[in-house]
Specification:
single chain, 2,3-Dihydroxybiphenyl 1,2-Dioxygenase, domain 1, four-stranded mixed beta sheet, alpha/beta, 2 domains
């Protein structure tokens, strides 16, 4: 997304380009043109919608500590249904760093000592939690059969990986 600062720089460049062709437009007219190009009805609407600070975070990707690649794949891929996005090792006999994804949820799994601490909890806002529960129950995973729990703030489905990490899926 464009920041307000970037949009102002775009307007300044636009005015300079017009001036190079002996066409003069006001600063406010340039701002209105930039707003239009960015898909806003006017500059005021653009200002309200654009990030004022220039800093914007897209998402957070958690890193979870793992100790056994086979157990991690069994739990995260076979049981939870994640797909592997990438795998990385500095050398064949060094620790694994693995990126997994399912339905927009990205998690990194690491065998590297300094990347994360076992016992981490992830809180994952979830749609269709009943469908997730039914899917996991149907797999008859030997190390856990998570149940839906009704809380005052929504339904919760917690799963525990083989390394002491917990994923708390919640639909509220």
């Amino acid at each position: 997304m464009t920041s307000i600062t970037q949009a102002k720089h775009m307007a300044k460049r636009l005015r300079a380009q017009f001036a190079a062709r002996d066409l003069e437009i006001s600063h406010s007219a340039a701002l209105e043109l930039v707003a239009d190009q960015l898909g806003f009805k006017d500059w005021n609407t653009a200002c309200a919608a654009l990030d004022q600070s220039g800093v914007r975070f897209e998402r957070c990707i958690a890193i979870l500590r793992i100790f056994d690649e086979a157990k991690a794949r069994e739990f995260y891929c076979d049981f939870l249904g994640f797909s592997v996005e990438f795998e990385h090792r500095f050398e064949a006999d060094l620790p694994l760093y693995l990126g997994i994804e399912r339905a927009g949820l990205k998690i990194h799994l690491s065998e590297h000592h300094g990347d994360a601490s076992p016992g981490t909890t992830l809180f994952v806002p979830t749609l269709e939690i009943q469908a997730l529960h039914d899917e996991l129950q149907a797999k008859r995973y030997g190390y856990g059969r998570p149940q839906l729990v009704e809380q005052g703030w929504g339904q919760v489905l917690e799963v525990y990986d083989p390394f002491g990490n917990r994923i708390r899926f919640c639909q509220g």
